[in-house]
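Go through the following before class.
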Amino acid sequence: MGVALITPFRTDGSIDEEALIRLVEYQIGSGADFLCIMGTTAETPTLTADEKHYLKRLLVERVGGRVPLLMGCGGNCTAAVVAELEQTDWTGIDGVLSVCPMYNKPSQEGLYQHFRAIAEASPVPVVLYNVPGRTGVNMTAETTLRLARDFDNIVAIKEASGNITQMDDIIKQKPDGFDVISGDDGITFPLITLGAVGVISVIGNALPREFSRMVRLALRGEYSAALRIHHQFAELFKLLFVDGNPAGVKAMLHAMGMIENQLRLPLVPTRLTTMEKISDILHQLDIKY
C-alpha cells in the first residue's frame, strides 16, 4: 500500500511542515509501504516551483530511505516533462509517476510517443498513470502493454480508469516485471483478486494501518478477512470523493485532529454534511490513531 500524500496547509494557506512530518511518521509507523509525493492528492498544481523543491527536499530527508518515494512528474507538454526529468536532482527518489497528458486529448499513438520520450529521458523507473476522469483521455490496454513491452524502465501502471475489463486485460497480458497498481481505493480489493499488486491510496493518508492490512490480507489470498475490511470502508470510499479529492481525506484528517481543514483554490473544503458523515463513521469504526 502506497499513500498518495496530501500537502497540509495552515489557515493562512502556507505549507504546514509540522503537520506533514507528523503525517509521514504516522504513515510509515502504521504500515505504509511507500509514499507517492507531488501527485494530484498533494494539490501539486497549486504549489509554486519553490514549494515543490522545498517539499521534495524535506520529504527525502525526513523519510531517509525507510520507504521508497515515488514522485509525480507529468504534464501535457512532452518537451516540458522531458526537461524536468533531465534537470531535476532525483537523489532519494525511487521512481516517477507520470500521468497521461490532460486536456489536449492525444491519440493512442500520441500517448505512446509521449511516454516513450519520458522513458528514454528518465533516470529512475517510470510508473504510468491512467486516470481518464481527470485527463479526458483513456490509455487503452493495448497502448499500456505496448509501452510495458518496449521499455524495461516502465515498470508499472497506476490504473484509475474504472474499467475492470481493461485492467484485467493488462494483468493477463503484461510482461514479467510490469505491475498493475490500483488507483482507486474502492476497487483495490477486487483488483488484487485479479492480480494487481497493491494500491496508491488516498484513504491511506488517514487509515494506513487498516487499509494496508486489507491489502496484505488480499495479497495472501485471505479474501474473507480482506473483504470484511473492504466492506467496513465502503461508505468512506464514497464520502472521500463526493466533494472532490483531497477535500474528503483532508476533512477526515481534520476530524482526527491531524491537520487544518485547509485547501488551496480552486479546491474548497467538503460540505458540512459530508464532514459530519465522515466523523460519524470514524466514531462507529472506533479506530485508534
Remarks:
- The longest strand covers residues 154-159.
- The radius of gyration is 18 Å.
- The chain has a mean pLDDT of 97.
- Strands lie at 2-4, 34-37, 69-72, 95-99, 126-130, 154-159, 179-182, 198-201.
